[in-house]
Design goal:
Pdz3 Domain, alpha+beta, 2 domains, 7-stranded mixed sheet, 7 helices, 3-stranded antiparallel sheet, 23% strand
């Protein structure tokens, strides 16, 4: 008598059938196999730089969204935030928050403090200022050259937000536009700057949270959160030491030739040139991606030299 294979029992509903086939369901009756993978939760600790309790922020993709989150934590307006520093409450331009945040970085928000109006006599072509911006419409002073015109005006400080030049409001301007405006001011004439300095407190260490010092969290990770003006933020590996040094040199050249410092712009320039074979190809790539800057040929050539050395 031939053997007969036992036929599988038919089930009355699809849910029971899925269970027999080994697929689990969730409490709501949906298939777990079809659920999206859980997203990584990134939480950052934050304080106001002049002193505050510690708060946390998460779920942001741009600088503007981050400022809004911080403002919500401390119940202030986002427009009060001038810029943020990482891992220090001091006005340290080497620790400015840019487009990348280390996953273990502690964020300090510097808010508007004293307003001041300063008259400056432009006796030389160069004022000795390096300008940057916060990515959300506020330009400020990143560096003052020793012995320069501005260095002699002690009421002008590194970290001051430039609110207006000769009565013209520059809110929303990028740093290169502000630098150009200052460069175009006539020599041997007086001009006026309206400035806002960040609110300051006595030197202080970051306040601990849950028994742990925030300084103990600094510099221990190799990943960063890259913020974007459009689209979601992404987690990236830190650049290699060689690449990081090259980008730093490009940033130095930006200051030398353009009077600005912008590590994100320097990174964009490095990325534009890393796969190019010669200076001409690099110059074309810069025109396509950053044509509005009108970089001088000498600058482009020097940047190409830095990229070539890094290769």
């Amino acid at each position: 008598m031939p053997l007969r294979l036992r036929r599988k029992k038919k089930f009355n509903n699809k849910e029971t059938s899925r269970l027999v086939e080994g697929e689990q369901t969730n409490a709501a009756g949906g298939s777990l196999a079809s659920l999206p993978a859980p997203t990584r939760r990134l939480v950052f600790h934050t304080q106001l730089a002049h002193g505050s309790a510690t708060g946390t922020v998460e779920s942001f993709s741009s600088v503007q969204e981050l400022y809004a989150k911080i403002a919500s934590v401390f119940e202030i307006s986002p427009s009060e935030i001038l810029y943020c520093t990482l891992n220090t409450p001091k006005v340290d331009m080497g620790k400015l928050l840019g487009a990348q945040i280390g996953l273990e970085d502690f964020i300090f928000a510097h808010v508007k403090g004293i307003k001041k109006e300063v008259n400056v006599y432009k006796s030389e072509d160069s004022l000795g200022l390096t300008i940057t911006d916060n990515g959300a419409g506020y330009a400020f002073i990143k560096r003052i050259k020793d012995g320069s015109i501005v260095d002699s005006v002690k009421t002008i400080c590194v970290g001051d937000h430039i609110e207006a030049i000769n009565g013209e409001t520059i809110l929303g301007w990028r740093h290169f536009d502000v630098a150009k405006k200052l460069k175009e001011l006539k020599k041997e004439e007086l001009f006026t700057l309206k400035l806002i300095e960040p609110k300051k407190a006595f030197d202080m260490e970051p306040r601990p949270k849950a028994g742990k010092s925030s300084t103990g969290r600094i510099g221990t990770g190799r990943e960063t959160l890259r913020l974007r003006s459009k689209g979601p933020a992404t987690v990236e590996e830190l650049p290699s030491e060689t690449k990081a040094k090259a980008i730093g040199k490009v940033d130095d050249l930006l200051e030398l030739y353009m009077g600005i410092r912008d590590i994100d712009l320097a990174t964009t320039m490095f990325e534009a040139g890393k796969d190019k074979g010669n200076p001409d190809e690099f110059a074309v790539a810069l025109d396509e991606t950053l044509g509005d800057f009108a970089f001088p040929d000498e600058f482009v050539f020097d940047v190409w030299g830095v990229i070539g050395d890094a290769k």
